[in-house]
Amino acid sequence: MKIDYLMELKNNDLQVPRNTYLVPIKKFKDFDKGEMFWLKRFENRKAVLFRTRDGLEYHLTEENLKNFKLTGR
């Protein structure tokens, strides 16, 4: 997923307001396929995702976002 496209979606979702959710399309690193993440914000061209499983924030680059898809908004 392109970071610019995701930033545009998030900005739109902030206006409504509604949350933006992403899920991994495959298992990679410590992320499970289908596990839901909440897109909180962007910092230095990185997406900051909140993971409910461990309550931590993850800073993902555009390269990592290729393994995710938009699932809800």
Q: Which terms summarize this structure?
A:
SH3 type barrels; single chain; 73 residues; alpha+beta; globular; 5 strands
What fold name goes in the CATH topology slot?
A: SH3 type barrels
Task: Give the oligomeric state of the chains in this entry, treating copies of one chain as homo and distinct chains as hetero.
Answer: single chain
The strand line-up of the biggest sheet is 4-3-2-1-5
Count of alpha/pi helices:
2
How would you sum up the major sheet?
5 strands, antiparallel
Rg calc: 11 Å
Give the end-to-end Cα distance, rounded to a whole number of Å.
Answer: 15 Å
CATH 2nd-level architecture = Roll
Order of H and E elements: HEEEEHE
Helical fraction: 10-25%
Could you give the count of β-strands? Answer: 5
Characterize the overall form: globular
Mean pLDDT, to the nearest integer, reads 93
The CATH top-level class label: Mainly Beta
Low-confidence stretches: none
- Beta-strand level of the residues, as a percent range? 35-45%
As for the number of domains, it is 1
**Which secondary-structure class do the elements indicate?**
alpha+beta
